[in-house]
Amino acid sequence: MTEDALEYIRSQEEGVLQSDLWKALNIDSRKCSRIVAKLLKERLIIREAETINGIRTYRLHHTERL
Predict the structure, then answer these.
(1) Distance between CA 32 and CA 18 in Å, rounded?
(2) Where are the alpha helices (DSSP H) in the chain?
(3) 30 torsion bin: left (phi>0), alpha (psi -120 to 50), beta (else)
(4) Taking the mean position of all CA atoms in its chain, how far away is CA 5?
(5) pLDDT single digits (tens) 32-61
(6) 45: phi then psi, degrees, rounded to nearest 5
């Protein structure tokens, strides 16, 4: 599932909202948060806080491994 998430993030030029990622992968938000944490730890993605309609979420962007 981690590889699927990374591929999806890579495919989005402007990044992807974390809330959209778990919907696209058909998983729950908790599992998505764990996947995102793993990708962040491995420095494969970065995230920016964003507010959409008063709801805080994160925009995820792919990055090359540092």
Answers:
(1) 8
(2) 2-11, 18-24, 29-41
(3) alpha
(4) 7
(5) 999 999 999 999 999 999 998 998 999 999
(6) -140, 165
